[in-house]
C-alpha cells in the first residue's frame, strides 16, 4: 500500500484540470514548433562554456507536456462515467491523428516508423484498466497482460515507446504519493525538465475547471491533430522536408 503524501497543503492547490490541460497543450505546441520549424543554429544565450539555442529551450519547455497528459489521463480514468467510451475516444483520436502525424514526420499519408502520442496514452489507459480490474481477483493475469501492452508499445513504435507506457503505469501506481512519483521522471528523457511538470501536478485541486461540456472536450482533443497538420503545411511551404 503506497502511503499518501502531499507536498503542498490543500489551501495552496490552485490548478484545476482545465488549467493543466491548457499548460499541457501550450508546452506541447512549443515543443513541436521547436522540433519541426525552428532553426537549430539560433542562439539566445552564450558564454565561454555554455550555449543555449532557441531550439533547445523550446524542446526543454516541451518536456512538461507528456507527464501532464499522462496525469490528466489517470485523472480521467477515475472521473469518467463511462470507461469504455473514454477508451474508444482515445482510440478514435489516435486513428484520426495518425494521418497528420505521418505527414508532419515523414511527408507520407501512411507510415509505420512511428505512431502518435494518442496510441501511447491508449496503451497506458488499457494498462490502468487491466490493473484496476484484475489486481484483486486475478493478479497473476496482470503480468502477461502488462508485458503484452509493453510489447505492443515497443513493436508499434508509439511515441515515447515502452518507457512512455511504463511511465503512465508508474505514475498511476504512485498517484497518492507526490514525493515518490517524482522518481518516475527518470523513465523519460531529460528528467530535470520532466520533473518541472510535477509542480503543477502537485498544485492540482481536483476540480474540472472551465473546460466543460462535449464541445470544449472534443475541441481540446482536436487541437492535437489540427496543430500537427498546420506544422506540416508550414514545413511543406518552407521546403523543410529533406
| Bulk shape | globular
Averaged pLDDT, please?
94
Low-confidence stretches: none
Structural class: mainly alpha
Element layout with pairings:
Blueprint: H1 17-36, E1 43-46, E2 51-53, H2 54-62, H3 65-79, H4 83-106, H5 117-134, H6 139-155, H7 161-173, H8 191-194, H9 198-202, H10 213-237
Antiparallel strand pairs: 1-2
Structure description:
It is a single chain. This protein is mainly alpha-helical. The protein has one domain (10-237). It is built from ten helices and two strands. The protein has helices at residues 17-36, 54-62, 65-79, 83-106, 117-134, 139-155, 161-173, 191-194, 198-202, 213-237; strands at residues 43-46, 51-53. A two-stranded antiparallel sheet has the order 1-2. Strand 1 (43-46) and strand 2 (51-53) form a beta hairpin. Helix 3 packs across helix 7 (161-173). The termini are far apart. The mean pLDDT is 94.
Descriptive labels:
242 residues; mainly alpha; two-stranded antiparallel sheet; 10 helices; 62% helix
Describe the structure concisely.
The chain has one domain.
Amino acid at each position: 500500500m503506497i502511503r499518501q503524501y502531499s507536498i503542498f497543503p490543500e489551501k495552496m492547490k490552485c490548478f484545476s484540470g482545465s488549467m493543466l490541460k491548457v499548460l499541457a497543450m501550450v508546452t506541447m505546441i512549443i515543443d513541436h514548433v521547436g522540433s519541426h520549424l525552428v532553426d537549430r543554429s539560433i542562439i539566445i544565450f552564450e558564454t565561454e562554456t555554455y550555449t543555449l539555442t532557441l531550439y533547445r529551450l523550446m524542446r526543454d519547455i516541451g518536456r512538461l507536456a507528456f507527464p501532464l497528459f499522462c496525469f490528466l489521463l489517470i485523472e480521467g480514468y477515475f472521473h469518467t462515467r463511462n470507461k469504455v467510451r473514454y477508451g474508444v475516444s482515445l482510440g478514435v483520436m489516435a486513428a484520426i491523428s495518425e494521418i497528420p502525424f505521418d505527414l508532419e514526420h515523414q511527408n507520407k499519408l501512411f507510415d509505420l516508423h512511428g505512431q502518435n502520442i494518442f496510441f501511447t496514452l491508449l496503451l497506458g489507459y488499457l494498462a490502468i484498466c487491466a490493473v484496476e480490474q484484475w489486481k484483486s481477483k486475478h493478479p497473476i493475469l496482470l503480468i502477461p497482460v502488462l508485458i503484452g501492452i509493453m510489447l505492443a508499445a515497443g513493436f508499434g513504435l508509439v511515441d515515447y515507446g515502452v518507457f512512455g507506457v511504463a511511465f503512465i503505469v508508474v505514475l498511476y501506481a504512485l498517484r497518492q504519493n507526490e514525493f515518490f512519483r517524482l522518481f518516475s521522471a527518470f523513465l523519460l528523457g531529460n528528467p530535470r525538465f520532466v520533473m518541472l511538470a510535477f509542480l503543477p501536478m502537485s498544485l492540482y485541486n481536483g476540480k474540472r475547471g472551465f473546460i466543460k461540456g462535449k464541445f470544449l472536450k472534443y475541441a481540446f482533443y482536436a487541437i492535437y491533430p489540427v496543430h500537427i497538420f498546420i506544422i506540416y503545411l508550414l514545413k511543406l511551404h518552407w521546403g523543410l522536408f529533406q
